[in-house]
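RECORD TYPE: protein structure
NAME: S-(hydroxymethyl)glutathione dehydrogenase
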Amino acid sequence: MKSRAAVAFEAGKPLSIVELDVAPPQKGEVLVRITHTGVCHTDAFTLSGDDPEGLFPVVLGHEGAGVVEAVGEGVTSVKPGDHVIPLYTAECGQCLFCKSGKTNLCVAVRATQGKGVMPDGTTRFSYNGKPVYHYMGCSTFSEYTVVAEVSLARINPNANPEQVCLLGCGVTTGLGAVKNTARVQEGDSVAVFGLGGIGLAVIQGAQMAKAGRIIAIDTNPAKFELAKTFGATDFVNPKDHDRPIQQVIVEMTGWGVDHSFECIGNVGVMRAALECAHRGWGQSIIIGVAGAGQEISTRPFQLVTGRTWKGTAFGGVKGRSELPGMVEDAMSGKIQLAPFVTHTRPLTDINEAFDLMHEGKSIRTVVRY
Ligand code: NAD
Ligand code: AHE
Ligand code: ZN
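PREDICTED:
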């Protein structure tokens, strides 16, 4: 079948709107009609050419919502007409990782997913007879996409897809990082570096956890207003200070914060986030994704004196088990999604979503088909 899609033919170039060929879903696969997709900074990161797993040509996009159109052989957990959110972190329930009860990092399809292909090693997308790669097991920048059955969460059909698509990545990652990875407790102090979709979701999560002080840090002060509505109590622009930002945060708090979150993908800021964590017990959670070849560093003394460095993928959330409930929470107002959707665009204008992100004007642009 034909599908309208935004294809990244080359790194660093705008996406091209084309008609792709999409092959039918094979065994264990599902054809999904995407109705809405967010644009996350990770899409821009991979498009930039900095992603070690980046492959071209590719259909990017991993923050979508849609409806099942058809299922391949042996698929039992979803049927045509079901409303779904594609998952870049699958949940098979069978692998060592799923069974461990310790992590959401299912490996059922991860190896082929990282190579831009379906589990049988081939692609379902092609253009002019040549294969086009899949991305993060989702490829939501195509109206019709094929994903593994284990990479789909079935959700309430009455949910607003323009909003709940953000549970496919950004909002879930931020909320989960607070709840599952950091386990923020009532009264804890929190510092959030980077106030995009991820950082603002961390702030929302911190408020839900009844954190005490929530320090919001960004070089773009235009982000502070929304951070305040989500519950941030203090606002810091590193550009207003002539000393290291970790020093500023430690001076503000006495000994540093209980939890810090890096939501940018900047290894220098990751160091600052670790070093503003409280002596003896503070922890820092890396959420941001850094480019090929980049590494983190700090003085080991920072860890010797009780700080912990952690990271999180998709906020530690198991998508098939937990996303349906998070969708219900969004529908009942327990999770706020509307403020994240600062812009909407038709597919034809998807490149504007990237421009708005790079200009610091948007939190999330949601693209509709
Ligand atoms: P975004 O571009 O919307 O937001 C980033 C924010 O960081 C912006 O507000 C920007 O002004 C701010 N910033 C940039 N440099 C800064 C600096 N030096 N100091 C302070 N603030 C600075 O991005 P996003 O969509 O919110 O994504 C954030 C990061 O999280 C990206 O690296 C993305 O790839 C990553 N991410 C990771 C996961 C995961 O599961 N680990 C999930 C989603 C996104
Ligand atoms: N491909 C990159 C790593 C990218 C990365 O870390 N992705 C995050 C999700 S970002 C969502 O916006 C993640 O979940 N990672 C775990 C995983 O299994 O991919 C690289 O460095 O190779
Ligand atoms: Zn993302």
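COMMENT: The first helix runs from residue 41 to 48.
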